[in-house]
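Morning!

This is the sequence you dropped in the shared folder:
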Amino acid sequence: MNISKNDRVSLKKLELQDAKLIFDWRNDETIVQMSSSQKKVSWEEHQQWIKNSINNPTRSVYIVNYNDQPVGQVRFDKDDEKDDFVYFSAYLLSRDTNKGIGSEALRLSCRKYFQENSIVQKAYSYIRVENEISKRFVMKGGFAPTTDKVIAEHETFKLMRSTVIDILNREKAAQKNIDFYSDLIKKHDLDVKSLNWGSKQSQEMRFELFSQLDNLNKKSILDIGCGLGDFYDWLEKNNLKTNYKGIDITPKMIEKAKERFPNANFEVKNVLERNENQKYDYVVASGIFYLVEQKPFEFMKKMIQKMFEMAEKGIAFNSLSSWADQKHENEFYANPSEVVDFCRTLSRKVVLKHHYHPADFTIYLYK
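The structure's back. Tokens below.
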């Protein structure tokens, strides 16, 4: 079970009063097996380590709290204060793994550390060769395998400052979109204007194209950027009985969608920030690319790739087109040829539809 929007992951700087807690954790059988040293420590050794950690300018240790309860630790170590790199390590109690807590703690701690230490340009993490769980954990947080630094019986992973900055920029852009659509909902409630669509007709025209992806009856569908649940409504009205799930980053959208369709499955989620482990026959996204300001084509490619990973059969998405005769400022118009070229790196089974609207195109991408 993953953490919900009501759960809270936070960090607390290590203090002397945490000594007994950390001592018990450091000697936990599971944590010892996953550690680099694979050794337990004595109380005397641990007390000295605590004092050194608190007073050491090259080390930062944080307790990970989940709903105000301590569940693990993250740590950053430097060989020298002047180094432009740091070593990252972390662990959680076994009872609190597989909930998304670790990923959130990694995100929070790396963001905090890089913001507070401007000299640091990269973080390394050494993980034992057999520890597949920890490898997946750090890679979800943006670390990538590297041969920059090598130690015996370990694999090395690296996180660049630029990656952390990109994540921060995406979060800021996402919040800007959330604020934008939240304001529209206040003004227009359930009207299509809350989604910034030109008309109900143009919205449903795009839904019709999505329905031509395949016979969607009895298929599982993930609708990314589902808004008020209008695609679910369209499917129901057209007697297409699907196993539907809608997700959106705007809480107000999901709140309204749940009010409209209490029997449907809606959730607040950003799939680029939090994993959606479930697979779906088809993954679709309508109108999610046009407001992206920070590296819009890079965002588009990441989203297409993520959608394709979650799909068993294929995906469909639309975008404003750079082939349009007229364009509006502050909106992203993708080049259909470039999008098709990228899609072909994922699958040769690509369909481009550019006939239905003067400024819009839809792509189908099949497994």
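Headline: The chain has two domains: 9-166, 189-366.

More detail when I'm at my desk.
O.
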